[in-house]
Amino acid sequence: MNWTIFNNNFRQIIRPITTLKKLSLHNCGLNGTLHDQGLCEMVHLEELNIGYNTLRDTLPSCLANLTSLQSLDISSNQIIGNLSGLCEMVHLEELYIDNNTLQDTLPSCLANLTSLQSLDISSNQITGNLSSSPLKDMTSLRVLRISNNLLQIPISLSPLYNLSKLKEFASYSNPIYIETMPHSLTPKFQLNSISLSGYGYGATFPRFLYHQYDLHYVDLSDIKLNGEFPNWLIENNTKLGGLYLSNNSLSGPFLLPTHPHMNLSVLDISINSFSGQIPIEVGAFFPSLWALNISRNALNGSIPSSFGDMSLLEILDLSHNQLSDEIPEHFGDMSSLISLDLSHNQLSGEIPEHLAIGCLSLQHLVLSNNSLEGPVFSKIINLTNLVSLYLNSNNFIGKIL
């Protein structure tokens, strides 16, 4: 189709179709401005998707004519200005305007959208402080995504405590700060998902997390949290599937929950300062892990053989620690393993033969910078799916072939 012709005739095409309730022009090559498209005449629209085009300019005030609109997707265009052009759309339930060039603070009239349940304004240039934004008054919100902006976010999330329906909060790459006056209030929400990854300055775990019991996904990476491993967070949330704590300032031992956690599938505590030994029962307490990354810490001692109990584990990274002794023979019981990185430790002995017999799915094996020895290639000849193999800086002997 000639999209230039389509764009030039778009107004003529849709003007007669005043009965339309649902319209999707997602990724259709639309260009020009929203003012040019004739959309404001389609007063019966309930759903409109014009995402992933090259529409530009500000949001026209005539969008207020679309009084029946419940879902609006303008994501991934070149929209500028602010959101004030949408403040009259009081029946709107879903608004996706991420990946544009919106600027300024959020207009106070945004609180007029009392039916709004899902809002995504990620990847714009929106400024201001969450504490003074209209978001704190939008009590119908269930999903709020504000990542990749210039919003100041208090780590307590206290401005959102009245949003009792909120289930998902995503705020990657916003500046996070610690409030000078601590809050003793308890949030009204019970989140399923929280992403507070960004750049912060050495806070402790926010208190509101101690009152969350329905979390499925938690990402608190890159905000320089200090304190110990939050085993309480795992204990309190039996449905937790993913926990990401990478690149913080956490220290102390790697603590297990009181009881085995049957749903945790991804755990990333890399780039912290955890020390001591890996608990010997780690495999029994996290039997459903799919990926485990505890690299770049200060863990020492032997690698527990209970890793072999993790029959679902596909990715294991223990690199850049101070682990010693031999690689456990039980590693060969991890039949699902695809990637194994044990590099930059103090491991000794030979590669266990059972590893080559049991881990036939292995594609990436990294054992460099240890003190491993003995013949090597006779031990891995069965690993026919290997794509990358790093054995440098060890004491292996024998021929390549």
Please characterize this protein's 3D structure.
This protein has 401 residues and is mainly beta. The chain has a domain at 256-263 and 279-401: Ribonuclease Inhibitor (Leucine-rich repeat, LRR (right-handed beta-alpha superhelix)). The protein is 8% helix and 22% strand. The longest helix has 6 residues, at 3-8.
Structure keywords:
mainly beta, 6 helices, 16-stranded parallel beta sheet, Leucine-rich repeat, LRR (right-handed beta-alpha superhelix), 401 residues, 8-stranded parallel beta sheet, 22% strand, elongated
How are the secondary structure elements laid out?
Blueprint: H1 3-8, H2 10-14, E1 22-24, E2 47-49, E3 56-57, E4 71-73, E5 78-79, E6 94-96, E7 118-120, E8 143-145, E9 153-154, E10 168-170, E11 176-177, E12 193-195, E13 217-219, E14 226-227, H3 231-236, E15 242-244, E16 249-252, E17 266-268, E18 273-277, H4 282-285, E19 291-293, E20 298-301, E21 315-317, E22 322-325, E23 339-341, E24 346-349, H5 353-358, E25 364-366, E26 371-375, H6 377-380, E27 388-390, E28 395-397
Parallel strand pairs: 1-2, 2-4, 3-5, 4-6, 6-7, 7-8, 8-10, 9-11, 10-12, 12-13, 13-15, 14-16, 15-17, 16-18, 17-19, 18-20, 19-21, 20-22, 21-23, 22-24, 23-25, 24-26, 25-27, 26-28
